[in-house]
Amino acid sequence: MSGEKVLVLNATGKVGRNTCRALKEAGFNVYGTTRSNTSELKKLGVHPVRCNYTDRSDLDHALAETGAKKVFSITDYFLAAKSKPEVEIQHGKNAIDAAKAAQVDHFIFVSVVDAEFFNEHVKHIKTKIVIEDYLRKSGIPYSILRPTAFFENFDDPKNWNPLKKGALKFLSTKTIKYYLRLPKHLRT
Q: How far apart are CA 82 and CA 160, in angstroms?
């Protein structure tokens, strides 16, 4: 995998920035989309690509410019989609369609664990199911990551901060039966 090109969408967000760092440390040639903050990505050793990751034509251009054959995608319901489910779904579809047109080798989408078990009132999670289904039907080789929580669920000063309240609640009450066990040579 060393030297392979990967395009990280929404690279200056919390998840995107940390994904860029991890991929860089793993030896990938990492490109990250940003609307304006190229210096932050350059500090990480990431090639910044000016791109509005929500816009299909920008995505087409970013994939053509970088030649990346792997894409890491996360959608942003609250900010980029302005809390509109149909907008977040379109953002996800745009990324998948652009990747398909560019004939990427692998598409990684970040969803959320147990998304199918949430009721229809949890719109920011139900959108993930629609995007997952679209990805499955796209014909692109893919992986869907379903974390149990994002860091902002633990330390979100703008909304609430359970770390300071002394209690943590997770998005799911389901027991997780399976987990990823890294081979010995990859453990730190």
A: 19
- Write down the pLDDT at residue 178: 42
Q: Where are the domains of the chain?
A: 5-186
Rg, C-alpha atoms of the chain: 17
User: For 61-99, how does the pLDDT look when each residue is reduced to its tens digit (9 = 90+)?
Assistant: 999 999 999 999 999 998 999 999 999 999 999 999 999
108: nearest Cα among 146, 143, 63, 70:
143
CATH of 5-186 among 3.40.50.450, 3.40.30.10, 3.40.50.720, 3.40.630.30: 3.40.50.720
Query: pTM score, two decimals?
Result: 0.81
Pick from 76, 87, 105: nearest CA to 7 = 105
pLDDT band at 141 (very low <50, low <70, confident <90, very high): very high
